Amino acid sequence: xxxxxxxxxxxxxxxxxxxxxxxxxxxxxxxxxxxxxxxxxxxxxxxxxxxxxxxxxxxxxxxxxxxxxxxxxxxxxxxxxxxxxxxxxxxxxxxxxxxxxxxxxxxxxxxxxxxxxxxxxxxxxxxxxxxxxxxxxxxxxxxxxxxxxxxxxxxxxxxxxxxxxxxxxxxxxxxxxxxxxxxxxxxxxxxxxxxxxxxxxxxxxxxxxxxxxxxxxxxxxxxxxxxxxxxxxxxxxxxxxxxxxxxxxxxxxxxxxxxxxxxxxxxxxxxxxxxxxxxxxxxxxxx
Length: 287
Ligand SMILES: Nc1nc2c(ncn2[C@@H]2O[C@H](COP(=O)(O)OP(=O)(O)OP(=O)(O)O)[C@@H](O)[C@H]2O)c(=O)[nH]1
Ligand SMILES: [Mg+2]
Fold this sequence. Notes:
The protein is an alpha/beta fold. The protein has helices at 2-9, 30-33, 38-45, 49-52, 71-79, 119-126, 172-182, 201-213, 229-246, 265-275, and strands at residues 89-95, 108-113, 147-152, 156-160, 186-194, 217-222, 255-256. It starts with a helix and ends in a 12-residue tail after the last helix. Magnesium ion binds next to helix 6.
C-alpha cells in the first residue's frame, strides 16, 4: 500500500525537477529510493520505524513520532533541494564573527554540535541532489573553522557551524553564542548528538546553552548506522529522558539520521521546509 502510494506520487511526468550535472547518490532522492523493498524504504523515510520492533512494549512511542509528514509532503519538500536557474542553491559566504555574518532576510537554520559529530556531512547529505555544492567534511575533528552560509534560493539559508569540544576553534564561543542569541532570522537550531556514543558532557553543556538562549531548537541524532540497535536505543532513551526532564524549548522529538545511508534525510528536509515556512503541510496522517 505504502509503496503503491509512493509510486503514484512519483509517476513519470509528475517529477519536474532537473537533476544536476554531477551525478547524485543513488539514495539522494525519494524517487530513486522508491525501488527499495518496502521495509527498507520505510526505515529510510521514518528511521524510528526501523527501531520500534526492538523497543519494549511499555515504552511510549509518541515522542518519537510527533513529526510524521505524509509522503506527499516529503516529495514537496524535496523539490526545494534541487537547484535551478530560478532557485539557486549555493555556498554564499563564511564568517568568523556574528557582525560579519551576511545580511540575509530569508529564514535561517543552523547546525551545531561537537566536532566530528557529523554537521557538515549532514548538510552535504541534505544537498546531495545538488552535489556541485561543496560541503567539506573530514575525519579530523575541528575541520570546520568558520560559520558557512548556504542559500537555498530565496526560501531559506542553512548554516554549518564549527564544532565545540576537541580541537574546536579558539574563537568558538565568541562566534557561535552571539550568533545564536542575536541572529534575527534564525528560526531553528539543530543540535547534533552522536547516536553511536550517546550524550557526552559537552552535549549536556550545549543543551544547557540552548535552554539559556531560549530559542526553539531540535536534537538530531547522527550516525545511527554506526552501532547496533541495542546501543542506539539505550542512547536514544537516555537522551529522551534528558529532553523530557531538562528542556523546555527543545522540540520533544529527536530526529534520527545517517548521512552515509541517507536514513532520515528526507524527513529532515521536510522539517526544514516546514519550519522555514517554505511549504504548507497538508494532511499528515497518510502514513
Ligand atoms: N558512520 C557514519 N559516519 C559519519 C556520519 N556522518 C558523518 N560521519 C563521519 O564523521 C566524520 C566527521 O564528519 P563531519 O561531517 O566532518 O563532522 P563535523 O561535525 O562537521 O566536524 P567539525 O567540522 O570538525 O566540527 C567523518 O569521517 C564522516 O564521514 C554518519 O551518518 N555515519
Ligand atoms: Mg564540519
